[in-house]
Amino acid sequence: DLVHKLPSNYAVKSYEISGLKVNLLESYKELVQIGNDEAGAKSTFLSIYGNFLRFYRGLNEYALYTKSVSPKAANFREAIKNSKDPEDALFSQFPNALGFYTMSIIENDEILKSYIFHIQDAIRELRSAYDNLLNRIEDHIISSFACSSDDFVVYKAEIRERLINVNIHLLGSEQSVVYKRLVSSLDDRASWLKSVADAVLGKSIDKMIDEEEVLLMNNLQEFILGLIKASELHEFTPNDNRSMVSIQMIGVSGAILDDKIIISRDPNPEFEAIKTQVMERLTTLDIHRRKQMLMELLSGEFQQDLVI
After folding, report:
1. 298: closest CA among 248, 245, 262, 254?
2. 150 and 113 assigned to the same domain
């Protein structure tokens, strides 16, 4: 009815496929697995083109925008995004995006096979972009916990064991969320990795931009190391008169000071008197000199070359 009422608003386009172009079209049909019966039931062009559009729309936001794919995959993704006309897309835009020219493809069987291979490879790469992100997150978690296995069930059990002494009531709010995600009962690898990474990044990683990956990995390591330290500290039984703290410092030589100190609150007049004297003398120095003094004292006490 709309066509009859406003014919000037519509145009009818026909597609003529003959000669060597048929070979390319048949290769497309094989690629997207469209049979002859289905092609006869509806436009072959639209069926093939529609499959590429569905593939593109099925990618999550990360896969749609990440630059961590090859130029070939990125160009092919952009070609699908910008395509409007099925014929132009299949016979011009898609080949050009992969560095092929239509006439070369349709005239040479070997070039045609190569073109289809590279389309398949670009599709595979785009489909696996998000999975590769999960793999990198997994590697970082395994490395940070120094797990002995990369098997999900095994390393997840190791993580729970490493954090067995954590008292969640002593954790900060953000650390508490990350801890809960790490020791959760989720048994699906992808869901578990995403839940941990989401908590660390503060947003869904399937909407993450490439520039946030460094932040994600750094935060992930900091949260994990903090929780490992917390587990060690929580193993110590504190009371009103004593608690434990953990310190880690790295000197310019690469020497690492990593130790735990028990803080006692029992009354000790001699200790308090010396502390008062030290504080009075330290306050005569500026903040940078005070820090230098304390660092040199710690370096000497722990016999570490933190200060050269």
Report:
1. 248
2. no
